[in-house]
Amino acid sequence: MVPLVIIRPEPGNEASTTAARALHMDARSFPLFEVVPRSWEAVLPGRYDALLVGSAQVFRHGGRGLAALRGLPVYAVGEATAAAATAAGFTLAGTGAGAMQTLLGELGTGHQRLLRLTGQERMSLTLPHGVTVDERVVYASQPRALPAELEALLREPAIVALHSAEAAQHLTAECVRCGIRRAPIRLAALSHRISAAAGDGWGEVAAAAIPDDKALLALARQMCQEPWPAGRTVG
Asked: Is the pLDDT confidence value at 3 over 90?
C-alpha cells in the first residue's frame, strides 16, 4: 500500500495518524510545523458580543489573556475547536462544520461586535452588514525543513494529507529545495482552497467532500487503494 504522510502540527498529527492507522492505512507521522504562542494585546471584553475562533490552537496557546474573555460566547469552526473552547471554560454560541465565512452567516441575535482570535496565517473574511470584527493573533505555525527520512520517503510514490494552505505551500517549497519530483506524489487536501494552494506538478490533487478530518482520511484511503492517473486534478 502506498504510504500516507501526515504533516500537520501536533497534537492533530497524532490524532490523524492514529485514525488513519485504524483504517488500515500505512500512515507516517512527520509534523512539519511547530505551533508557538504569540504575545497579543489584551482587550476589554465589554467591547465585544462574542468570540470567533477557527482553531483549537487558540485555546492551547492563547495564554493568560483568555481568562478575561471567558464571559464571551464562542463561535467555533469544527468540533475540535468547540471541544477545546468548552474544556477551557467557554460557552458555545455556535459551531460550524465548514469555513469561518459560513459561520458568519449564522450569528445569533445581538452578536455583531466580534473578536477573532486566530493564528498568524488566516483567511480574510467578508463581513455581513452591521458586523464588525477585530483580530488578535495569538499563535503562529513555524515551518520545519524536511527531515532526511521524509525526504527519502517522498522520492517514492506517496500520498500527503494537507490540512492547511500553509502546509501545501511549505511542502511545495521543500520539494523544490530538495529537488524532489512532484509527479509521483499525490495530495489529499482538506478543502478546495488548500488544494489550490498546492499548485501544479503533482501526480494527483484531490479535495475532501467536506472540510473534516474524517472525510479527508476517507479520501486518502481511497487514493491509497486506487491509483490515480498522473497529472489529474480532482476538484
From this structure: yes
